[in-house]
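Reading a protein record of the kind used here takes only a little practice. These numbers are not coordinates but entries in a learned vocabulary of local backbone shapes. Here is one such record, which you should read through line by line.
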Amino acid sequence: MRTKKELRAQYKSLRKQITDAERESASLAIAERFINFLEKDPKIQTIHVFLPIATQREPDTFLIIKKLFEEKKEVYSSVLLPSGEMQSIRINSESIFEEGDLGIPIPKELEFSDKAMIQLVLVPLLVYDIHGNRIGYGKGYYDQFLASLKSDVVKVGLSYFAPEEIIENEAHDIPLDYCITPQFVHSFEK
């Protein structure tokens, strides 16, 4: 089994090979598949969306945010505090973003919110496996954030790629419930 470090390096390299046109097309397909997925559970009204780091070639979640506003959903994201904790913020259709630390877009005006309202979280990742285990950038911010949420929050990853067979899993790692790619919705429900 390859280590997290090896997989992280491999998938960062694979992402760099994606052209702008391929990223745009894949991001649009992911957004459409996510909205279709969301329609199956109309009770979900409050969604936390990670904001894409362009230099990391992440899926463009602003396409999802736009569709969520059209569907009249409440949209949240988060900012990283100096303590290393992620603080939930609400975003709206009027939010203006600027590049923050680590290249993460953040709204110019922050509206802090109660993370207890969140029903579904879109989780960034580099790679995931058929069991819903994921590897991010190695800082652990999202694992800490997910651990602080209600246990019934739906955790959805977004990826350009198919899952690996198995990846290392540590006790603090929180698995996904689903992962959405341009082609599929992978379910890991236990």
